[in-house]
Structure formats: structure tokens, C-alpha cells
Amino acid sequence: MERDDVQLIHNILSGDDEAFSTLVRKYQKSVHALAWRKIGDFHYAEEITQDTFLQAYEKLPTLKNRSQFAGWLYVITNNLCTDWLRKKRPAMQSLGDSSVKAIDKLTYERYILEQREREAGERRHELVKQLLEKLPESERTVVTLYYLGEMTTKEIGKFLGVSVNTITSRLQRARERLQASDERLINETLGGWQLSGNLLEDIMRQVADIKPVSPPTGKPLLPWMALGTATVLVILLLGVSHQYLSRFQRPYSFEAQSEPTIEIIEAPVVLETVAKPDVRNQIGRAATPGKNSSTGSQVSEEVSVPTASEGFPNIFTSNTVPEVTRFTLSNGIRVVNLHVENSTDVGIFSYLPLGLGTDGKAKPYWSHLINHLTVRTAGPIDFRTSNAETMVDNIRLDFMGNTDTWTRGLEQHAKWLSGLPFSAETLTEERPRVLSQFDSIEANLATHKLAQVAWNQVFRHGETDIAMRKDIQSAQLSELQEYRDQHLVQADRVLLCVIGGVDPETLKDTMEKQFGAISLTEKTLPRPTVPPEIAKDQNATWDINVTHYMETYPVPRPENEDYPALYIASVLLRLACIQDTLLKEWTGGIFCGVDLLTPEEIYLYITASLKPDADIEKVKQRIRQLMNPLKEPENNTQVPMIAQGLSMEFSAPPDMKTLMQYKPENVPENLMFLQLGVSWGTIEYQYGSNLSHLASAFANVSATDVSNVVNRYLTAERRMTLLLTPQAVVNPQAQ
Is there a domain that residue 235 lies in? Predict the structure, then answer.
């Protein structure tokens, strides 16, 4: 049985080079397959394979999350291939270059035979490359890793950073596109290739002369870094403790085509690995992997993320701290500005109160469809600058520009907020895009936000049969526009966050001109219609082909003295759940937070999508087992560091130098910058005037405080559970 990567890395860093040879044997075919896929030459792919492992060995001490070694190796390989392609491709030695002396070593007959075999092999390889070129990029990579890399679907999923279900579906789609004879040729050609026998020997010989590079020691260690996990850094530094930022991601289009869509994201915290494909509320692409949308665009599931920003020449080498100013426009719209001197980039984010957790009875997912329609009211969307996201308690609309284009961004936001009429044409275009997203969400077991939609219907409206597809399909234009007018732009519940280099006074004057005339009236969100006698434990069906489990606990509001300790308890529970090996086996993903917000109540929630053969009772039992230690103060040793980190997060944004020092390798600087704007806008929107109070309160939370609130609030008596199971027929076309 192969040793675990984490243990192997530990042994390597302890001086055991033989452990590294085990890692090379384990991954050499995978790396070679990927390199060949990228550059198209078997022999140069071997050179890149060798360089990949040498670089990995040298930089191994810098890998923070050792369980993500496979994804880290993918990033190194991809970068080396990119460098190779960028340089002048080495000239291939022609047959005529062979010296007479070399040919004389062979008999003429043997020479001719080898020549014919080589030429036949080259023809087969070229034919295989042509067959693979007919496949979409994502399927092409999976086929190459499967046949040439000799990897299982599970190993490919780990290597690429996507679910086994997604890999299986890509492989199946590729086989459907290929003829049986084509697949046999690919199998025979790629599967018959053998790496050079001395590759491992060459790598290990050079490893002996390499001294691994220790992690930099000059960086200021933030208090929470003692936790020893990159996950905690993300949670505390960029506000990922909120469900909104459950992972680092490119906030804008993944190589999008001209037609916009808004997508919904569900993915765990991932650092130090290749960027994973997301399904998010994003302007840019339809969310159905491998299928064409109504406009013919297609998801690119593997993303090449740039490693640096071109728009930040100076600020990230200084201790620049964004200057936070707040003001309110004459009509009541609140604005928070993060001014970063010398920055040429500008991000503008508006937060509006309609969300997935507040949809009306029998209107599940209407807020998301309204998000689609709203961003299209201003006309065609430039996916390079525009984005949108639907959250449990808000819709966020984004613009990414610079100091030359930011006024156009304000104009766009003003149109979005002014209530421009929806059109029948836009509804015709956007409805199928929303519906198409369900397929990808199901394939990736990414149903956490959909579960919050269903939770709202069950516990706020008494529904037990949730038909999201049907209710989106039947929604009428007049109903949707009336719903938008009633609930989207409400007095005292609209916030705009601006981050970048615009002068604050200029920004204030310009925003007043752009937004001051927008009329905000007193409105209310859809009221609950649930009967008062509803049971705490509910089963419901939905038209989603995934089984999903949620449990929620009502908790006090942020102004209550117990809220900070409950917040920290949710962070500890989230870390325990996402790192638990058993839950990883049984679930497609499991998350925890204290921000399931409705107009009536706030809930701490735990939500898990279940793999097809998972035992729900075992999942429930495991959640209880992970929660129980929090009830004893001696188990909560991480509390002081998390408390200090949260206090810092809620006090002020981090300075740019510190932010960039802890930037994961595959995350570009401008993404960190924009994600900071989204994060700060989120906590401003959620907590507003309570921010300074919470910052102070977090600093004083103790391990005993956390245990006390867990014992008082997270009890069986207060627990509300929801088990969602697929309806008998979800997709008639699949029957």
C-alpha cells in the first residue's frame, strides 16, 4: 500500500531522499502525460518531467498544505510547459543530421527497420494528437492522463482539483465523441509509451546535489499563523469566514465568450493548488461543463491563472493601508471607500438585500433569475469588467475597471439600481442559462446554496416539494419585474463598496451625481408563511439529483454579547469538518457558518452534499463527534489566535505588503486586491455600525466563552434538520 503523501513529504524534509523517489514513481507518468498534453513532444515532455520534480524537491519546504501536493505538482508542470512554449522551441534533429559513424553502428537492414518503425510511431502519435484536438480542452486533458498517465479517475480528480464525478463525466463525454476505433488507437498509442528507464535515476542523482529552499523567514508572522494552516489565514485575512468567500477564485470571467451568464459557486477552501473550476454567480459563461449553452459558449473548466498583476507597479512593495471612509448619499445609499494610493485599478461592488434565503413562497431561486435580468437591463455586458453574485441574503453586482474607466462603472451601477424595465427578449435569453446551471451543480455535488434556497422554502414557507426548475420555467415577466421593484432596492439596505486609487472627494461628488436621483422607498422582503406548528426535523424532495443534509441552530444577532463566541465556534467547526477524512469520503463538500440570515432570525448552519452511497446517519453522527470537543474549554486551544485574527480583520483592512506576502502562489495580485474589496464590503453590509463593537468583542473571547455558547445554543433541543432527496423523476430526458 502506498504511503500517504503527507507522511512522505515529512520524511523527505527529515532527510529521507528515498521517500522522494517514492513520490517520483507515483506521479512521474501523470506529470509526463500533462507535459506531453501541453507541448506535444514525448521526449521534451520527459525533460519537463525531470525539471518538475527537481523544482518540487527544491521548493518542497515552502508547500504549506502538504495534502495538496498533487495539485501543487500540477501547477509546477503547467508553469514549466508555459515557459517552454514561450521560448523558441528547440530544433528537432532531422534524420539527415545523424552522423555516419552512428549509422555505421547498425546494419543497413536494422537501420531501415528502425526508421520505418519510428516513422510509423510518429504517424500514430500525430494521428492521436489530431484526434485529441477534436475534444474540448477539459476532456482532452482527462483522456491523456487516463491513457498516457495511467491514472484512475480518482487520481485525476485529485491531480486536477475537481470531483471524481466530474472526471468520470468528462471521460464518458470524450468516449461518446470518439469512435470506438479512435479510442482503441489512443489507448494503444498512449498506453504503450514507456518513460525512459533512467528518468528516476537521473532525477535522484541531481536531487543529491540540491538543498531544499527553506521558507522565507523575514515575513512578519501574523498571530493566527501559529495555527499552521493556510485555511485559517484565508478565513481571517480576507473574510472567507463568510459563506460568500468560501475560497479564493478569479472574480471575473473564465475565458468567457461575449454572452454573459451569472453562475453560482460551491467549492471548499483551496490554497497552494491549481485554480479549480467553479460554478459561480459570474458574468461570463454558462455553467454546464461540456455542453453548449444557448449561445454556443462553453465552460472552460481548467483555468490558467496569471501569476502577477500588470496594474500594481508600486503599492505592493510598501506598507500601504487602504484608507477607509464612509458616507451616505442624499437618498440614503451607504458608501464605503477603500482608497489605495497609487493604485490604478478600481473595483466597485453594490450589495442589495434580495437573496436566496428570502425568496417568497413557491418562488425558489427567483432572486438568482432577477440577478440575471438586472445585469442585462443596462444592455450587453462586458464580461471582462462586469460580474454578479447571488448570496443567501443579498445580490452583489460588480464592476472591475481602473482610474480611467471607473466613472463608466458608476454609470452601470446606477442603471442596475434605477429599476430599468425587464424585457421579454432578455427573459427568453436568461431563463435557459439559469436552468442550464443546475446540471453542473449536480455533477459537482455543489448544492450548498441550492440547499439554502430549499431551507427557506421549507422552514419559512412550509413547502415540502421544492421545484426550482419548474418555478423558474413558469415565472412570468410581469411577476419578476414587480418582485424586483418590491424587494431589490430598499431604503437603508443598499451599500456600495469602492476600492482603488480614486480620490475620495472626487468619488463622493461623482457618486452623488450618479446615484442621488435614484428613489429608494421603504420596502420589506417576502414575509414567511410557515405555519407555527412546523416540526424542527423536516424531510423534503426537490428537483435536484443530489441528496443534501442541513442542520441549523437559531443564534442571537451580532449586537448580542454571545455572537462573537458563536462566530468563532463556527470557524472551529468549519475547520474540523472540511479537514475530516471521513466526511471527505461521504460528502461532496461540507461547510459551516453563522451567516444564514433571514429577516426574522440568524442561524448557525452545517450543510453537506452527500455522495450517492453515503450513509446519512453516519454523516450526522460524525458531525456530532466533531462538535462535541468544542463543549470543553481545554479542547479550544486555537480560540485566542482566531479571536485576535478576527479582531484585526474587523478593525481595518490589512496593509498591501502584508496581504501580498501571504498571497498563494497561483493567485494573482489583482485578485487579492479585488477580493479584499469584496470581503470588506461584505462585512460592512452585514455588520455596519456593529463593526467596531465586534472588533473589540472578538479580542476578548476565551476558550471558555466558546464552550459556553456551544453548550447553550448548539443543543439537540434547538437543532433544526432538513434532509433533501431527489424527486422520482428529475430530468425526463435522462430517463
Answer: no
For residue 649, give the CATH number of its domain: 3.30.830.10
> Is 719 among the domain residues?
yes
The answer to whether 260 touches 381, Cβ cutoff 8 Å, is yes
496 plus 546 within the same structural domain: no
Domain range enclosing 380: 241-515
Residues 392 and 438 in one domain: yes
Residues in Cβ contact with 48 at an 8 Å cutoff, skipping those fewer than 6 apart:
31, 35, 39, 77, 80, 81, 84
For the sheet containing 720-726, what is the strand order? 465-466, 537-542, 720-726, 547-555, 602-610, 587-597
Same domain, yes or no: 374 and 482: yes
Domain count, the chain: 3
Sheet of 386-390: strands edge to edge?
A: 323-328, 334-339, 495-500, 345-352, 395-402, 386-390
Q: Are 594 and 504 within one domain?
A: no
Contacts for 424 with CB less than 8 Å, ≥ 6 apart: 477
CA–CA gap between residue 685 and residue 571 (Å, rounded)? 20
Cell matching residue 543: 428537483
- 201 with 260, same domain: the answer is no
Tens-digit pLDDT profile for residues 273-283: 333 323 333 33
pLDDT in tens, 181-230: 555 555 555 554 556 667 777 788 787 777 665 544 333 323 333 333 34
Nearest to 153 by CA among 168, 143, 134: 168
Q: At what angle do helices 563-579 and 703-713 cross, to 10 degrees?
A: 90
Q: What's residue 129's pLDDT?
A: 60
Q: Which residues pair with 399 in a beta bridge?
A: 348, 386
First to last CA, the chain: 40
Distance, CA of 504 to CA of 336 (rounded, Å): 10
Are 520 and 352 contacting, i.e. CB atoms less than 8 angstroms apart?
no
Residue 264 inside a domain? The answer is yes
Cell triple for 609: 452534499
Per-residue pLDDT of 530-548, as tens digits, reads 876 789 999 999 999 999 9
The three state secondary structure string of 407-423 is HHHHHHHHHHHCCCCCC
Do residue 541 and residue 511 come from a single domain? no
Name the CA radius of gyration of the chain, rounded: 27
Which residue numbers in the chain have pLDDT < 50? 1-3, 89-121, 192, 215-317, 730-735
The predicted structure's pLDDT at residue 326: 94
Question: In this structure, are 565 and 660 located in the same domain?
Answer: yes
Same domain? For 325 and 358 the reply is yes
- Residue 556 included in any domain: yes
At residue 723, the 3 state secondary structure works out as strand
> To which residue does cell 484512475 refer?
152
